[in-house]
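Lecture 7, part B: from sequences to assemblies.

Below are the input chains for today's worked example.
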Amino acid sequence: MTEQDRPITEQELHAYVDGQLDATRLTEVEAFLAQHPEAAQKVKEYQAYNQGLHALFDSTLQEAVPEILAGKPQVRKKAVPYLQVAAVVAALAVGSVFGWVFRGNMETSAPSTLAMVNDAFASHVVYTPEVAHPVEVTVDREQHLVTWLSKRLKTDVRAPALKTIGYELLGGRLLSSEGEPAAQFMYENAKGQRLTLFVRHKKTAESQTAFRYASQDNVQGFYWIDGNLGYALIGEVDKEVISNAAHVVYQELNR
Amino acid sequence: MADFDQLIADHIPRLRRYARALVRDVHAADDLVQDCLERAWSRQHLYDSSQTMRPWLFSILHNIYANAARQYHRTPPLVPLNQVDETIDAQQETDLTLRDLQRSLALLANEHREVLLLVGLEQLSYKETAEVLNIPLGTVMSRLTRARDKLRDLMHNQPAPHIRRVK
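Predicted structure of the full complex, as structure tokens:
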């Protein structure tokens, strides 16, 4: 059977409509359509659908791309009461001497706060030893990282700069804490010591607190609730180091 | 890798167009695109730069959509019939035909709509479409055939007063 004799298939009619027909079959298909008005009508309608789709949706191509899609950060700086900063700074100074710090209004932390701290410790211990993939999104994509985590947590999340104390941001990842999205930022100093900052939404039962200290084995952490977020800064470093780092994190976040 | 950023940026308008056609609601469509871009960024190391980027991005978008199609469909697609004016000129007739098309498109099964849009709107090759949807080429062809049959059926059976306008 020669090429010319081969019957025209329905698939070839679609390929004709979509401009994907093998060039060697073009003449045959057009000859076929000339002799089969019903098929020709169908083809015409199919072509009209393709054109109609363009007429309906091509305007999207001309629209300016929204900033959030262009990857620009959504982070806004928030206004901060100075008194509160001062209180925390003072609390930290005391805290570095007495171990656990300012107790805010609560005698003990709410259960959900403790759950957050547990998740923060667990995540720190799981991810900081990773060599190849310590973070999900690396610092060279910092803006995307922040935009992404902000969207997932449905609030502005920031990765504070800790360069003043020798820690560089490595990146971060999305985690889960009590069924809710949480963020982890990871930092590293020149010696390869790593800190993680764990962030998640404040639960309704939690009220604003200043810094609290927690430790598990040789891992130290400070945690606090600020605004609508709960934070935990974790590291396998001396308590004074983590205390000072928490101080810097707090100031950076409220800058 | 600045090239990667630029490549992604170049594809955003087309991803938006496809998402808009797929889920109709503008905001839900942009959510879908944003989810797609986030995943693309986070999987940058998995991107094979010897391949063209478009099928890769569209397949990411498809997979997100396939896993959570429901959450992206917020707005009912139907237009009440009583909004259709009885006296219509040629431009309005075109608009009506387009509206019929949009409505019919919304009534297709997801698997049919996706193939129809990737081929007819995004003008992907059948092979690329198979890659995006992770299905065999033969399945692309049979879905495309079914999608257009069904669409034609819907277009020919639009409720009055549209039916008089369909040539």
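Note for the exam: The radius of gyration of chain B is 18 Å. Keep this in mind when comparing with the next example.
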